[in-house]
Amino acid sequence: MPAVCLYFQVHQPYRIKPFSIYAIGSGDDYFNDTEIRNTNNRYILEKVARKSYLPTNELLLELLEENPQFKISFSFSGVFLDQCIEYMPDVLASFQKLIRTGQVEVLAETYYHSLAVLYSEKEFAEQVRLHTKKIEAVFHTTPRVFRNTELIYSDAIGDIVEKLGYSGILAEGADYILGWKSPNFIYTHNTNSNLRLLLKNYRLSDDIAFRFGSKEWTAYPLTADTFAHWIHGHNGNADSINLFMDFETFGEHQWEDTGIFEFVRQLPQAVLKDSDSSFITPSEAFARFPARESVSMPNPVSWADIERDLSAWRSNPLQHDALKEIYALEDIVCATKNAHLIDTWRKLQTSDHFYYMCTKWFADGDVHAYFNPYQSPYEAYISYMNVLKDFEIQIKKHISSQQKNKLPFVTALFHSIHNMFNKITCIMVH
Amino acid sequence: MLGWELPPHNSGGLGVACNGLASALTLDDVIVSFVLPYSGIYNQKDWQILFADTYFQELGTDTSFTFAAYKQVGSACDISDFLYRERNGLINEVQKYALRMQCIAEHEDFDIIHAHDWLSFLAGITAKRISKKPLIVHVHATEFDRTGGQGLNQDVFDIEKLGMEVADAVITVSDRTKRTVMKEYGIPESKIHVVYNGIDTSELEKQKIDISFLKQIKREGGHIVLFLGRLTIQKGPDYFVEAARTVLEKMPHTYFIMVGSGDMKEHIMEDIAYSGLSKNFVFVEAMGPLAYSFFSHADVYVMPSLSEPFGLTVLESMRNSTPVIVSRQSGVSEIIKHVLLVDFWNTDEIAEKILAVLSYPALQKTLSQNGLPEASRINWKHAAQTCKHLYQSFIAWLFPKE
Fold this sequence. Notes:
The structure holds two protein chains of two kinds. By secondary structure, chain A is an alpha/beta fold.
């Protein structure tokens, strides 16, 4: 009987507020929109918490306590945790309660939910380090399995992650990548057998994440029993069925009136009805099942859109330009050693900024439009670039003020050398 | 099909739209006889053009036609008020057109009357009264759009309202115009059909020319911002000038080209001269292919209309890979996405978006890369199909199959 591995991504970016070209140079905060609209981060967090995080966590806690065999896993972006601490500590507390049950695994990722791995290995490693530190501080646990931003993975990324000391990583398991291979087994990196992969069963995952509330879907309305039946049907040809999705699926993408909460409530019992079935976390999956063979992903693969590649973040000139500009600042920003500037630079790396600039399918009014707090990808880009121009000015201001501060020191040094020279001359004269 | 103008003798988008629709209908096997109020020389077309002013002579009948004579043959109807009230200028021309239409309606064979804009509505009503054939009025613009809601011409409004009321169906060029027709003219929604305009730039493309002074500006590193349309209140040229002022503060090497004429031109030129900005403005009067040639030279085209039922020039600009900033108060923005939207009154926003396009090459590139295919998908074929379906539904209703 296959085991079920549930993994949820929990992330909220620091969205930048509509930033006018006239505000460039003002040094105004980029992330503190206070108007009631979708670029107001506190407003969004409160809304999603009310609809999704709080009711889902309450339900999950109940289920974990009722069923000691029920297991789940999460990855939290650092910027999500920061926003919880800043705006809604009770949301953070509700997650902490789940972790404390001991039935929940927390995964590693980049603090800023960034695409850093594609641009700077050094920066990527630093963001992973910061994230681990944060998870240890907030949840008192050390992540052992890695999950990159939006499940972005390639052979090259696998090598980088393995170098950081991870032996397991999560990735997308779409048909076109796996071919005849099944996502329900564990694989190894194409050349590096130290790194093992847990792949998303996209069909069963998307049944919950995307199709659940769709009245046109033949399986609508989906019950936990039917879903468990599908899982049990894999008997003999699956080790682990990996259901990976956004945590906001519950209550935000699938609204309460779709019956999603009722579905979740009944899922553990429905799956466990078959006594051979179980729930596992990624670490347990890697420990329990052997790797079947290696799998190669030469080009980056993600879990986004039907393309499942990088095109959601990097396909048009707007996105290429914005990404090029932000990563071009690495040396100059890091050289300032100014914590605020470095943090701002990293917040601007969050992948969502580039996702909002995506023009793919824009005309069809699809999911990108739904999740875009800006009126269009063009507006997203304009605000972002205006912010970047302002940010560059702030860096320059900081550097020139540093130089001014250094001046008295240089003068003093000069004076002391001058004095010493005088003394030496005196001695020599005498 | 009843119209007022056709290219090359057209004053704006109405003639272009009529030409595009009539050609596409012909390709779709609809036989079109297009009536114009005045004779002129037009290129050979696949469809017939009838001239109301010379139709009598061609028939060899009595040309001593007067209003009084018409009065005797015409039955008492609600349009008589419009036809015989003494009017000057344009309304008088519209009256004459309607009177002359009587003869055409009597002698020509047709199934449907399709009249474009208020200028031909009275003629359309006349044709309907005489032939008893269904009348479709096509609203390309309303008096509310033309005047920005201020200083409405009561005669024009009354003719529009009467035309829409008498008509068996009303076609509007956008959802926006449909709402105006419902709200301001009290026409029931069930009678209104939205048919978005198409675009056919093939002829214009052939005749496109290079404009050397614009090329010179570009060579010297200057930016070109284009306004193209009548300089009347509807098109918002004054908002364009306001936005230009702000742009010039940040990017002084920018040139604003205003193509068109209209009653606001003098005022705008004076205003610019007073502000000392004349060297950054160029005024051009051009129509047809010459006007069209400006698009490909511009860095960005701005259409800050107060109320634009459709906005064909937006598509023309996109076909030239030139990014567009267009007012949200336009019909075309209902069907295209790869443009920058603004509120016409928010000149800071207009200026900001002009500056963004000029400052960020990636923005310019993405807008043009995505805009060209998007605008290219919009053609007259689809508009013609919708019209044809409407015709067929009337014909099926009038002549049910036995």
